[in-house]
Write a structure and sequence with these properties.
The chain is mainly α and about 210 residues long. It has twelve helices and no strands. Helix 1 packs antiparallel against helix 3, helix 7 crosses helix 9 and helix 8 crosses helix 9. The protein is globular, with a radius of gyration of 17 Å. The chain starts with a helix and ends with a helix.
Length: about 210
């Protein structure tokens, strides 16, 4: 484990609470383990790590994100999301490959949604030229994937930009149509996809 990874993991365990971990495990219904750290503690820990290990490069940030994600503990994985969010200016279109793996593994709204809205969205907004074209091609593919969590991410990612009155409306509409064309059924999988489309549509209506 890297020094930064060990620092984050130790701090998250120290901030953990057994009762909160048991409660979160029951609510999530996930195979992930929980330390019982609060979201605020996770964000604070990543912020402290940034101060302790400043000026990390792109490769160091993405490697640390993968290191945190590799162990199936919710707070570690949320820390990986916060780390990427905090360093989104360093991310490139090629990082979507790594993020795709995270989304496929996550299978929880509490991880997939911030990955989509707070990491992928701002990253796409900052891309230009060939990098943007390639990234949009990846997201178009996600919209047609069998994996409902990739489809959810493909329609959720522009939420912040659309809420602000910017963002690619036509791209959202195209991907939403693709997402819904692959019938997810009426169970939980269907809900995962349809609620994401509905959420963005409500934001579009509110933005006028």
């Amino acid at each position: 484990m890297s020094d930064a990874g060990e620092f984050i993991d130790t701090a998250l365990q120290r901030e953990g609470d057994w009762y909160r971990a048991q409660q979160a495990q029951g609510e999530a219904g996930s195979a992930l383990r929980f330390y019982g750290s609060s979201v605020g503690a996770v964000r604070g820990t990543v912020r402290d790590a940034g101060r302790r290990y400043p000026r990390l490069t792109h490769d160091q940030i993405t490697a640390l994100g993968s290191e945190l994600w590799a162990i199936p503990v919710f707070e570690r994985r949320l820390a990986a999301v916060v780390l990427l969010q905090s360093n989104v200016r360093l991310l490139k279109n090629s990082d979507l490959t790594r993020i795709e793996g995270f989304v496929r593994d996550a299978r929880l709204r509490a991880l997939v949604d911030p990955l989509a809205v707070d990491v992928i969205g701002p990253m796409i907004e900052a891309l230009q030229g060939r990098g943007l074209v390639r990234a949009e091609g990846v997201l178009d593919r996600w919209a047609g994937e069998a994996d409902v969590w990739l489809r959810r991410a493909a329609v959720l990612y522009p939420l912040r930009a659309l809420r602000a009155g910017t963002g690619d409306r036509e791209g959202f509409i195209r991907r939403a149509a693709s997402v819904l064309a692959t019938d997810p059924g009426t169970g939980e999988d269907g809900t995962v996809v349809r609620e994401a489309v509905s959420l963005v549509l409500r934001e579009l209506a509110a933005a006028g």
